[in-house]
Amino acid sequence: MMKIIMVCSGGMSSSIVVNTIKKEAEKEGIDIEIKAVGTGEFADKIKDGWDLVLVAPQVRHRLDSFEEQAKAAGIPIEVIPPQSYSPLGGTKLITQVKKYL
Amino acid sequence: MTKFLQWVEKVLMPPMAKLSEQRHLRAIRDGIVSTLPLIIVGSFFLIFSNPPIPKLAAKMSTELAGKIAIPVRITVGLMSLYASYGIGYSLSKSYKLDGVSGGILSLTAFIMTTIPLNIDGIGWTLPMGNLGGAGMFVAILMAIFAVEIMRILQTRNISIRMPEGVPDSVARSFEALIPAAVVITIIWAVRVMIGFDIQAFIMNIFKPLVRAGNTLPGILIPILLITLLWATGIHGVSIVGSIARPIWLTLSDENMMAIADGAKILPNIAPEPFFQWFIWIGGSGATLALVILFLTSKSKYLKQLGRTSILPSICNINEPVIFGAPIVLNPLLGIPFIIGPMITGVVTYFAMYFNMVARPATLPPWTLPAPIGAYLATNGDWKAAVLVIINIIIMIAIYYPFFKAYEKQLLAEEGKIEEELS
């Protein structure tokens, strides 16, 4: 199983995108666990053992500090492109995730 | 417009994003945000102590109202106290110093600027007047002072070290000994022995800034910066808020305390709920209006986007719209997204300036539908809910021509795809 952590501003909007990814993964038969966190919780939650970090586009200006923390934890990190960050971006989102399977 | 948006992304956004990521500003933001749950709960007690239903309010005795308002005084009325701990904790964490020690030291430094009084029959008492929103900037500067002293002493290796084998928590408290002694002695000397009023001094410096936040330019500038940043896909409120939130909370605290003291007309127009409920209806850029238009769209894509994002939009979550439509770097939808909120901002400002609508004070949770949030934030003024509806209608009118032009573009594309398929 693949474990993904997604960081956005408050962890609210990303939960919508998280559901989109979950649905799409189910369709393709991929086993994933995915959790959305706000920027404040990120430093603590990153230590819980993940396979991939996704960064919501609206907090991409903080990528440097997220990258540093992800690197320290040895986890690959990716920014979600703005055009796939919506409930209708499922296919694009799952393609981005599948690279790390 | 495309060029302008690119300019915003390349020139305006990077320095602002960098500023908001600055260590001290980030600590201030995180520290203050950690007090929001208390303020939201305090808000509810304030609403209950002044119930918006006239019949209930008439039955409420002053004594009972005073009792219900006690949690307001302990949460909102001591807001800066909690913030000082939060800021000190975050700042010392960012230096990889012990967070709890930094938080406690900041709290001490802040309280040291208040002189306790010995009152007959009560004993030693701390005056609360400057421990709420009024003292926010004092709390911020004292937290920075305390943690910086801690850091300087640490980097110079000035601390009491315990031999190995001493438990961590004990060693830690000894490490904080010298910083605590230095911080307390300096503030004590300045405040008590010399008699220099640190609080009044800092509050006077920041007073013009807080008052400016309450003027028409003071609301239009943050509105413009927030939509400009969002138009490039960056979380505008989180960046602008890291600088403006201390001001917004100070204004909000003054209003809440005025209600608790029984005032009818509140002193300030533009605390944070002004923006939250009257301007950002459906999220930054007031996109609820746009989503309503999407629901009526002939374009399949926009219609489906409207359907999937109407519920989050009612709860003021609009990332699906901003990134889905998209509004980001889209000149057509970007124009009303930036201009519309400035117009509703002016309308709302004057409606409150002339007291046609009550001024907002309390902070209901931001995911409530806007008319309800506005009603609660103004302590139960139904006209506030009406103003929200008027603002939605204004935004629909502003978005409409741009939406139609964009729909035409999409319909042409959708038509082309269908032609190719058939």
TrEMBL record, chain A:
CDD domains from the UniProt entry: PTS_IIB_chitobiose_lichenan
Keywords: Phosphoprotein, Phosphotransferase system, Sugar transport, Transport
Pfam family for this entry, one: PTS_IIB
Cited InterPro entries: PTS_EIIB_2/3, PTS_EIIB_3, PTS_sugar-specific_EIIB
Keyword Protein transport: no
Record's keyword annotation contains Cytoplasm: no
Superkingdom field: Bacteria
Residues covered by the PTS EIIB type-3 domain: 1-101
Positions carrying Phosphocysteine: 8
Entry protein name: PTS sugar transporter subunit IIB
UniProtKB/TrEMBL annotation, chain B:
Subcellular location(s) per record: Cell membrane
Segments passing through the bilayer: 27-48, 68-87, 99-119, 131-153, 174-196, 216-240, 274-295, 333-354, 384-403
Ranges of residues in domain PTS EIIC type-3: 8-402
Location (main, coarse): membrane
Record-linked InterPro entries: PTS_EIIC, PTS_EIIC_3, PTS_IIC_cello, PTS_Sugar-EIIC/EIIB
Taxonomic superkingdom: Bacteria
Keywords of the record: Cell membrane, Membrane, Sugar transport, Transmembrane, Transmembrane helix, Transport
PROSITE patterns tied to this protein: PTS_EIIC_TYPE_3
Membrane topology: Multi-pass membrane protein
Function: The phosphoenolpyruvate-dependent sugar phosphotransferase system (PTS), a major carbohydrate active -transport system, catalyzes the phosphorylation of incoming sugar substrates concomitant with their translocation across the cell membrane.
Protein name as annotated: Permease IIC component
